[in-house]
């Protein structure tokens, strides 16, 4: 037991996935393969995956064969350790399996490069759920200014698939939570939900899917017409969720196509209304304070007059 090699088996060489890591490391003469102490490695704070699922099978495989595909890392001088760029499930499994060292490929990239590699690598592995995938593609689009065509080319998918996947970000967070709880994670079914014309309609369709066991075809027919048989009116929805902020903003228009200028004007109108409401609240609060102040100044005088009459 004491002489057993942990980590990469002796009869295995460091290898990496030709679909992505080869492309990254081929551009850098600084890419180095090595065994690194597991205690010197820390998770990626920008990991797009929210849940790692059941790792039991992977843990057993790691115990028997070690880590056959190295983890992509970069060295952090500030923390004096290594940050995972790609391969977090393997790292978690190695930790649970009790490995002391894991095979890694070290590359020299900045924060932007680290995030981009992590997002693309996770997306290429096709094991993110539909919401994680849509959020990761949205970050590629917004943070790196990639067009839908560029993202499609990087991931080897059609532009239509990228556009459809991005549309899932329009599903409000509370509806997403219901879908996760009900295990409604099929992209085709989620696309029917996001095509509903309002927040309430999305909840209604989730109710029908969970309560009636609605199939994808039934959901598609439900999406085409309302109870009267009339075609549904498609509505444009604008969603905004900033990084590292505890809020999300959603605005829905009563028509299908909306220009950016219209969104800006609507946002200005919302802001102006909020400012007016705040000014009214402050004015009313100030008036109440002034009334309370006058009452407090009258009270001692009234008491003094009462005392004088008694004497």
UniProtKB/TrEMBL annotation:
Domain ParB-like N-terminal spans what residues?
A: 34-123
Q: Outline the segment boundaries, as ranges, of region: Disordered.
A: 285-311
This entry carries the following GO cellular component terms, namely: chromosome
Looking up SUPFAM superfamilies in the UniProt record yields: ParB/Sulfiredoxin
Which GO terms are recorded in the biological process aspect for this UniProt protein? chromosome segregation; positive regulation of sporulation resulting in formation of a cellular spore
Q: InterPro entries per the record?
A: Chromosome_partition/occlusion, HTH_ParB/Spo0J, ParB/RepB/Spo0J, ParB/Sulfiredoxin_sf, ParB_N
Spell out the Pfam families in the cross-references: HTH_ParB (PF17762), ParB_N (PF02195)
| Gene Ontology molecular function: any one | DNA binding
Record's keyword terms, sorted: Chromosome partition
Is Transport given among the entry's keywords?
Answer: no
Give the record's family classification: Belongs to the ParB family.
According to UniProt, the name of this protein is ParB/RepB/Spo0J family partition protein
What organism is the protein native to? Candidatus Polarisedimenticola svalbardensis
């Amino acid at each position: 037991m004491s002489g057993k090699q942990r980590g990469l088996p002796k009869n295995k060489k460091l290898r990496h996935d030709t679909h992505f890591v080869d492309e990254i490391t081929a551009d850098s003469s600084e890419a180095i393969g090595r065994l690194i102490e597991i205690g010197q490695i820390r998770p990626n704070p920008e990991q797009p995956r929210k849940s790692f699922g059941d790792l039991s099978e992977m843990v057993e495989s790691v115990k028997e064969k070690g880590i056959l595909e190295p983890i992509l890392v970069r060295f952090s001088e500030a923390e004096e350790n290594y940050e995972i760029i790609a391969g977090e499930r393997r790292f978690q499994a190695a930790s649970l399996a009790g490995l002391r060292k894991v095979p890694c490929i070290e590359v020299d990239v900045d924060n932007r490069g680290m995030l981009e590699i992590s997002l693309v690598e996770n997306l290429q592995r096709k094991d993110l759920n539909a919401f994680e995938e849509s959020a990761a593609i949205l970050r590629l689009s917004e943070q790196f200014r990639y067009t839908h065509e560029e993202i499609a080319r990087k991931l080897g998918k059609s532009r239509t698939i990228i556009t459809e996947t991005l549309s899932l970000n329009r599903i409000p967070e509370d509806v997403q939570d219901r879908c996760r709880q009900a295990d409604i994670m099929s992209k085709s079914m989620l696309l029917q939900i996001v095509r509903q014309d309002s927040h309430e309609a999305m909840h209604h369709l989730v109710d029908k899917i969970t309560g009636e066991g609605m199939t994808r075809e039934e959901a598609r027919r439900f999406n085409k017409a309302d109870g009267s048989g009339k075609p549904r009116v498609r509505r444009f929805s604008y969603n905004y969720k900033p990084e590292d902020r505890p809020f999300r903003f959603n605005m829905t228009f009563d028509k299908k196509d909306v220009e950016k200028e219209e969104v800006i004007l609507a946002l200005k109108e919302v802001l102006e209304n909020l400012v007016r409401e705040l000014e009214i609240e402050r004015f009313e609060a100030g008036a109440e304070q002034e009334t309370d102040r006058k009452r407090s100044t009258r009270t001692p005088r009234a008491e003094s007059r009462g005392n004088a009459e008694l004497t």
